[in-house]
Amino acid sequence: MKRPFVDAERLRAIAAEYPTPFHLYDERGIRANAQRLHEAFAWNKGFEEYFAVKANPNPVILSILKEEGCGVDCATSTELLLAEALGFRGEEIMFSSNMTPFEDFLLAHRLGAIINLDDLTDVEYIAKLPSIPKKMCLRYNPGGSFVVSNGIMNTPAEAKFGMTRPQLTEAVRALLELGVEEFGLHAFLVSNATTNDYYPALARLLFQVVRELHEETGAAFTFINLSGGLGVPYHPEQKAVDITAVSAGVQTAFQEILVPAGLGDAAVVTELGRYMLAPYGQLIATAIRRKETHKSYIGLDACAADLMRPAIYGAYHHITVAGKEDHPHDHIYDVVGGLCENNDKFAIDRQLPRIELGDLVVIHDTGAHGYSMGYNYNGRLRSAEVLLRSDGTTQLIRRAETPQDYFATMLFPQSARL
Fold first, then answer.
1. Which CATH architecture has domain 279-407?
2. 76-to-37, 118, 189, 384 alpha-carbon distances in Å
3. Across 173-185, average pLDDT
4. Spelled out in words, what is the top-level CATH class assigned to the domain 27-277?
5. Burial class (CB in 10 A: 0-12, 13-18, 19+), 412
6. Per-residue pLDDT for 152 more than 50?
């Protein structure tokens, strides 16, 4: 059984101050996790975590991670502008995009970000920049299936991201001719991997390709970007990734492949999002309706607009009822929102304690890809975000949307009155 990171009494007090629904984040947990990551990879003197902004773009959350020594991984010009506003500069920013407008490359270049090229044709855009960056990264797609521990984890050949192996060589040679001096290699092959074997297996693949590219072209590879992909235990029976064991596996591959090739000074960097934040966020909602037809339904004041992962992926998010964690789970409910879509369901046939109207319902592991994937279908307004500070106080870090926010970009006929 997962338990909320605040008890029922404290949660009711928070809900009295900030009306539900809202996403609640645990500052203490976020900081401790960032520190564990850096400690695990301390063996690599150049290690850097570039937090994936897409996972949670809240400025306060990003500032906390900045204080803990993290950079940022951005994918769009808006994310770059957010990073700039928060004081991220130069090589603290990794720009990993795809199908990228030239204007975005210009902004990344102005900020001094490390640009991670997704396609061979991106080299043409680099040649048009005001000056040639001294350091560049290339994104690799090995194709086929990616196998870990004799099991297929994903099929990179079906992914739109990255270059083929021959294209990497061509890109490196073209960039060397333009004047690029340092290179990195990047690949994102698996999402939400909960095995300790994923990063070490990916590292071996990338380290070997880096060694080959260095031998083929003479290019200086100064970093390897393992990207993201480390998962979290959404189900209560799952085990969490052991980051110390993961790092030890990466270190072994580093020593076996890169050090003998004279590449032992290369930095290992990551772009984790879900692993950094998912367990330290929870969507807090109130049970507002009950319906009995062919099934038993509990309706919340939250909906898929606040957390769309269950709707679009069928993703599991654990649910607890505040104060009833130890009550018998002897009722079966579909836990739903109020959108006019049948996939607006947080849980289907979930065994839970009896839920009364007014109960606070906690949906776990929403710290990454929770609020950030929200939308306004049906005119539903996105929720607030609240931070539980390390000292136990709370801070509103994003107010709830209002109808005025929803209408702000609409151009009404002059006869309209709101």
1. Beta Barrel (2.40)
2. 26, 13, 20, 24
3. 98
4. alpha beta
5. exposed
6. no
Instruction: Pull the structure tokens for residue 124.
Output: 């043409």
pLDDT digits (tens, 9 = 90+) for 86-138: 999 999 999 999 999 999 999 999 999 999 999 999 999 999 999 999 999 99
* 337-360 pLDDT tens trace: 999 999 999 999 999 999 999 999
Helices 27-40 & 243-253 angle (0-180, nearest 10): 30
Domain boundaries, the chain: 27-277, 279-407
pTM, full prediction: 0.95
What whole-number distance in Å separates Cα of residue 333 and Cα of residue 241? 30
